[in-house]
Amino acid sequence: MSSGSEHHVIPLKVYFNVLGALLVLTVITVAAARVDFGQMNTIIALGIASIKAFLVLSYFMHLKYDDKTFWVIFGTAIFGLLVLYFFSELDIMTRVLEINVL
Amino acid sequence: MSTVSHTGHAPGEHHHAHHFDSTAHEYDAAKFGIWTFLATEILMFGGLFVGYVIFHSKFPEMFHAGSTFLDWKLGALNTIVLLVSSLTMALSIYYARDNQKGKTLFNLYVTLACGGIFMCVKYIEYTHKFHMGLLPGHLFNPHGDHAEAAIEAAKHFSNLGMYFSFYFTMTGLHGSHVLAGMGLITWCIIRTHRGEFSDKYWTPLECVGLFWHLVDLIWIYLFPLLYLIG
Q1: At what angle do helices B203-222 and B23-58 cross, to 10 degrees?
Q2: pLDDT at position B115 over 80
């Protein structure tokens, strides 16, 4: 798994550009949430959040330059979450309706 | 008695532990370990996210009503603070690897300060909600002068307390991670002062940095979910 001795150094400019992109995306998130797109609001917000997450993972956590093993570890966790979500949703949707969950 | 001693050698010098072939081997093992740990963190927060998504789809109006009692401006401020702290954390590693101790320390202190600002804003938000009785689950009991809107909303949504259960559990778990991160950064600052990091050895900085970025990553999702779309 080793990339061992040759650790990539990301130029400073890239870090500042990434922060700039993240701040711009934050502004877009806030702006998009103030417009009513109905159910699409959730999807838009999560989509932008995922782009931001991808930037943080790729550059700040330098997965882009690292050994692919780390993407696999991260992906495994996300896959585990999807499995959890899938079966939980299946369970909830097929239940007899409750009146109040609290 | 141990063959490995981490004290008593010159500043900046690092001897890898005896069960590793080389410093590079030690670094790779440490990173593998921290990434595995981050995966477990994702799964821990993930349970809450899955719960949020499911109950949000069941009670969308109730969640929307709940989110109106959060101040998105404070949430956005905290987002910016955490994003900047992620940059300074990355910069501290950059400078440590360039043997620039002063700039490494400066960036670590800024990161620590950002964590402090984040927790102060969280404190303001929490105490405000405590005073209004916007508490999780059965404790939810809006009262007082400024809580008219909450009292009104509670009449429409009998389970509004559930929104605050999610709010306090998710932000509370996240906040405890910020506190833990601040402790770890303090530890990195102390070790940087001692001159332990250089272009040859920066493993603890790297691992704490990855943890700090994950905390930022989780907030990137928490902010829109809790404050914006609700």
Answers
A1: 10
A2: yes
Q: Inform me whether the pLDDT recorded for B121 exceeds 80.
A: yes
Cβ-Cβ contacts under 8 Å, B216 against chain A: 56, 60
B219 pLDDT tier (thresholds 50, 70, 90): very high
- pLDDT band per the 50, 70, 90 thresholds, residue B209: very high
* Residues contacting A85, CB < 8 A, separation 6+: B50, B53, B54
CA–CA separation, B165 vs A75, rounded Å?
29
Residues 6+ apart with CB under 8 A from B66: B153, B157, B160, B163, B164, B167, B230
Q: Which range has highest mean pLDDT (B68-72, B106-110, B200-204)? A: B106-110
Nearest CA in chain A to B92: A12
Least CB–CB distance from A74: residue in B39, B80, B138: B39
Q: Which pLDDT does position B23 carry in this prediction?
A: 84
Residue of A19, A49, A76 lying closest to B83 (CB–CB) = A19
Region of A8 on the Ramachandran plot (φ > 0 left; ψ -120 to 50 alpha; else beta): beta
Cβ neighbours, 10 Å, residue B97: 19
In chain B, residues with a C-beta closer than 8 Å to the C-beta of A28 are: none
Are B112 and B186 contacting, i.e. CB atoms less than 8 angstroms apart? yes
Higher pLDDT, B156 or B176: B176
ipTM for this model: 0.87
**B36, B76, B94 member nearest A73 (Cβ):** B36
* Cβ within 8 Å, pair B138-A60: no
| Count of all residues that appear for chain A in the document | 102
Predicted TM-score (pTM) of this structure: 0.90
Mutation for A interface: B22, B40, B44, B86, most A CBs within 10 A: B86
User: Cβ–Cβ of A2/B24 closer than 8 Å?
Assistant: yes
